[in-house]
Amino acid sequence: MVSGTVRKNQLLLLLAVLLIARSALAYPSNADSDDMMLNDDYDYDTDEQSAPSPQTKPTGVVKSSVTGYRNRTLTTRGILGEDVVLKCDENITKENVILWYQDSKIITSGSSVVLPNFSLNPRNYDLTILKASPQNAGTYYCQILPQNIFVATKVVLGDHSLDVITPESSKSGQSSAHRLALLWLLSVGLALGLQLKH
């Protein structure tokens, strides 16, 4: 009689583990669409008949035929109300032209800053966000011409240093814990399944 009750409890536990594992596998995956767009091989060139814009905008990362092409994505964390420095590239020469953008808004052209609340270091073309506000959070692009190199920088701002945690990093932490819990549940289910066979 005891073994029948134990067997029923094991079967119920196995079913619960499998149900939890199934719901965990059905949980949607969180992928950063910006990184996916930056890392894909699609050429975003369009055949529009409209007049070209007088300023260059990074509407997508288009691969150049120049051999030095590369692009990187960085993350910079800053504190609201303080200056935040964004680095472009350590290999900039006098022959390069540097353009900085916030999303599609141009910030600098060469050594000229065209938007307020920004400054540019003329020696290394590092962009400084002056007294960062919530509107300054987002993605910035440094374009190095003529090589057409893009350096994307995600700017994350918080009230103080402990607040500067990106949602992506917390999602990846949740995702890792989620995977570990799923593996644990599957191993428990497998162990219970083997016990039921014997």
TrEMBL record:
The keyword Nucleotide-binding does not apply. Residues 36-64 are annotated as: Disordered. SMART domains: IG. Residues 58-144 form the Ig-like domain. Residues 1-26 form the signal peptide. Keywords: Signal. The keyword Oxidoreductase does not apply. Pfam families: Ig_3. It comes from Drosophila navojoa. This is Ig-like domain-containing protein. Residues 36-48 have a biased composition (Acidic residues). Residues 49-64 have a biased composition (Polar residues).
